[in-house]
Amino acid sequence: MGSEKKFITVAELREHNKAGDLWISIQGKVYNVSDWVKVHPGGDTPLLNLAGQDVTDAFLAYHPGTAWQYLDKLFTGYYLEDYKLSEVSNDYRKLYFEIAKMGLFENKGHGTLYCLTCVALMLSIVVYGVLKSESVLVHLVCGMLLGMLWIQSAYIGHDSGHYQVMSSPKCNRVVQLIAGNCLTGISIAWWKWTHNAHHIACNSLDNDPDLQHIPVFAVSSKLFNSITSCFYGRQLTFDPVARFLVSYQHFTFYPVMIFGRINLFIQTFLLVFSTRNVPHRVMNILGLLVFWTWFPLLVACLPNWPERVMFVLASFAVTALQHIQFCLNHFSANVYVGLPNGNDWFEKQTYGTIDISCSSWMDWFFGGLQFQLEHHLFPRLPRCQLRNISPVVRDLCKKHNLPYRSLSFWAANASTIRTLRSAAQEARDLTSPVPKNLVWEAVNTHG
């Protein structure tokens, strides 16, 4: 006869919520992940952010069925006694298992193959145009085409980072390194570090790095309180320089986006050469060396410096479209301060995301991320399936009286600018004191 089940309460589980003493529960079973957090493929941030909570919804969203085999050795022997499953979480889980039963997670389509073919074709045209033509106009078009190449490569890197491209994690990693490090110069390790934190704590001002743009941008006046970034482990100081820049952010938004790529290069190097535990550091550095070999050599092949500057600026300007899109998905959505709760996974994602409505023939341009809510709810779902499940997600939001915001590209731009302008007007109020200047934040803040 088996021994009786042992139980702990939600309050007792919540006490195990820090590094070295980190417990979570999944479907009523309690696991000790204090040591696992050090080798967790998704990094330590997701587990630390959800420590001491039931994380069933997040676990389902991020992990394939093969991940369950790793849980048994982490089981504490305890079950959660007084956990209450909300109706929306129950419906979310039903929808997840429905999607899994239909095989949509495995049905990846041929989108990635088409994208890779387009990227290879664009790269060939760019190289040929630079080397074989003496026309300034051709060089300008090649620069713009390179920007489009970077956009499509980033989408491939994003999809492979969510394991949507290949079935094997190792094959996905190869695609990540080629599409990310080698072709765009952005480390996939840096992307994973920030992106996982963004998904888990979507639109948390102190936990989501994608909203921490002080001193250049502030999407909420709550950032004027110089809050501490739990992600970067430092204060986001709202000083006189930040006040000045934020006061005009609705004018500077688009120009800054053109040069935003430079900050991504900086953030990449800051991480890969930091003292942090960077997964596959050597491979990431080698991939970056590939980019910083072919890209400068290509630019050097142009006949003079004016054309070189024109070429680089043209590529940056086109890529800015993607940077803008990422901001449209979240800047004007609801924000909050603090850590997310594991049992309001669905609600947090709906409040923090905005979809971009477009015709199906434009899906290639947005890389599937126009269905931002659908992607956040099911990050492993291949982009070709997002449009199919969109009506179901919309109905679920309607059933539970949750927001489902889907705006046109232009309406989303207008909404973002309104949000930036509103914060800018509040920043111009000089009645409250500000801390001393820390200019270096401008370089060391994620962009």
From TrEMBL:
Location of this chain's protein in the cell: Membrane
Biological processes annotated in GO: lipid metabolic process
Matching InterPro entries: Cyt_B5-like_heme/steroid-bd, Cyt_B5-like_heme/steroid_sf, FA_desaturase_dom, Fatty_acid_desaturase
Chain segments annotated as transmembrane: 111-130, 136-153, 253-273, 285-305
Top-level taxon of the source organism: Eukaryota
Principal location class: membrane
The keyword Transmembrane belongs to this UniProt entry's keyword annotation: yes
GO CC entries: membrane
Pfam families cross-referenced by the UniProt entry: Cyt-b5, FA_desaturase
Tagged with keyword Oxidoreductase: yes
GO molecular function: oxidoreductase activity, acting on paired donors, with oxidation of a pair of donors resulting in the reduction of molecular oxygen to two molecules of water
Record keywords, A-Z: Lipid metabolism, Membrane, Oxidoreductase, Transmembrane, Transmembrane helix
Domain Cytochrome b5 heme-binding: from-to ranges: 5-89
PANTHER family: DELTA(8)-FATTY-ACID DESATURASE 2, FATTY ACID DESATURASE 2
Family, per entry: Belongs to the fatty acid desaturase type 1 family.
Protein name (record): Cytochrome b5 heme-binding domain-containing protein
Species of origin: Quercus rubra (Northern red oak)
Lineage start: Eukaryota, Viridiplantae, Streptophyta, Embryophyta, Tracheophyta
